[in-house]
Amino acid sequence: MLYDAHELGRTFLRGQVPVRALDRVSLRIDEGEFVAVTGPSGCGKTTLLNILGLLDPDHEGRLEMRGRSVSGLAPRETARLRLAAIGLVFQDFHLVPALDALDNVAMPHWRLHGSRARARKRAAELLGSLGLGDRLRADTQRLSGGEMQRVAVARSLVNDPAVVLADEPTANLDAEATSRLLDLLDGVHRDGRAVVIVSHNPTVVARAGRAIRLEYGRMAAEG
Predict the structure, then answer these.
(1) What is the pTM of this model?
(2) Cα Rg for the chain, rounded, in angstroms?
């Protein structure tokens, strides 16, 4: 078992008004599983992904990862576990503008293992495998949307994570780039990693082995 989540909840304040973004959601995700999380805008998909990605410690309920409770970990322990075990792909890429493609990918590996040369070697291999071997030193702001997304995917894989969490990764891509990205994520899944992807796109959802639908912050369907 990769994730075991019990009654996850999250409330935000909008001005002075509390908004219930996630309401008692329980689920399990196995090692190596490909899961899509779908539902209308504002239903809690990104909130759930942020909790699974250990980005939001202020949630209710209990979250276990590989049998270990992660809900009460110290910030430093949480950061190290996220760095080692979780790959994150964001809708808006979140690449570091001051770094080229190579160092954007290398940075998480360097932080985890402490060797810049080793990190750059690993990053170059990954970027090459994704068809970006000639773009290693490129300014990321000069890359196309599809190229930036591939850099983001390479960065998510650089530490050989147990799971890749992707939040609407195809939202800014055309049909051709979307197909290429989904092929990449299929490859990640075939390599034995779990993939959890938030998406409105039925083509994306169809690729998954299981789909979870949220509505109004609650589990509405699973299958």
Answers:
(1) 0.93
(2) 17
